[in-house]
Amino acid sequence: MSTRRKQIEKMVAQLAAFPEGKTATRFPFVWASRRSQVTGVSCAMVKPSFCLILQGAKRVCLGAEQFDYRSGDFLASVIDIPASGQVSEAPYLGVSLEFTREEIAGVIQEGQVVVQPRLGSAAFVGRAPDEVVEVVARLVGLLEGGSEFLARLARRELLFRLLSGPHGHLFYQPDLFDPKADGVGQIIDWIRLNFSESFSVGELARDHGMSVSALHHKFKAITTMGPIQYQKNIRLQEARRLMLSGSLDATHAALRVGYDSPSQFNREYRRLFGAPPLQDIKALRLQMV
Questions:
Q1: What is the dihedral of CA 162, 144, 54, 89, to 10 degrees?
Q2: Sign of CA dihedral 208, 214, 217, 221
Q3: Which three-class secondary structure string do you get for 28-56?
């Protein structure tokens, strides 16, 4: 048995006691995800993070692209991005680490990492290099009473390994990190923070010194979708969260996230989540029992 396989199997054993679903660990930036059965398709916002699959397999859709990944593969994102996915092979176990773009930039600067920039999706699937698996295994080992200080150092090493590896150009894209870049990163951030506000793509492009065609091209290359679809997905995900928490009913959730028409909200909600709001929230609550 290879060292890589031994490390993965040891992590499976170390995380065996974690319950069904996504569970926080003693480190605030590390999560364990477990599913004992194959699941249906669900939609969610993928946060800036790295998730290594230890057992089973998943299928994820990012925009129009579909990816299958399994033990030893990873899903990563450097921005908040809407996605849909399902556990396609069970039992499933994954471990994820959250980070920020500022932390990536800090590692690049302090580690003097040289990355050849290429435009690409800010959420992607790949095969984890052996040195990355080794760092994650060390971090999982620290969950058993280890130091959070050492865990944070391991996370920085993980980012260094990822940036130095074959996927480095996807983890670091100047359009997302450089405030002097042509603006698509700033536009993504603006929509994410102001998703309830209406906007014109033409005005956004003009305000950031871009043509509409250039904005659409770069925005879709990074997020796998256009600006309006990106905003719509964020609105619907936030409305779902508000309803699931019991804070608001469907009508008030729709208004909160920027919809003027309840019928349009219901139509677009059903198209994304596969069921009207009340039916979807009821089903989600039953799953949580």
A1: -140
A2: negative
A3: CCEEEEEECCCCCCEEEEECCEEEEEEEE
Calpha distance 152→131 (Å, rounded): 17
Contact 27, 143 (CB under 8 A): yes
| Rg of the chain, C-alpha, whole Å | 20
Query: Looking at residues 20-43, what average pLDDT do you find?
Result: 93
Q: What is the pLDDT of residue 260?
A: 94
What are the tokens at 46?
């993928």
pLDDT exceeds cutoff 60 at 81: yes
Q: What does the block give as tokens for 30?
A: 């590390």
Same domain, 159 and 20: yes
The per-residue pLDDT for range 82-98, each reduced to its tens digit, is: 888 999 999 999 999 99
The answer to whether residues 14 and 122 belong to one domain is yes
Q: Which domain holds residue 269?
A: 178-289
Return the closest-CA partner of residue 18 out of 91, 115, 117, 103.
91
Last residue of a domain, one of 146, 171, 196: 171
What is residue 93's three-state secondary structure? strand
Which distant-in-sequence residues (6+ apart) come within 8 Å of 242 by Cβ?
248, 253, 256, 257
Tokens of 164: 């130095």
Residue 125 gets which letter from DSSP?
E
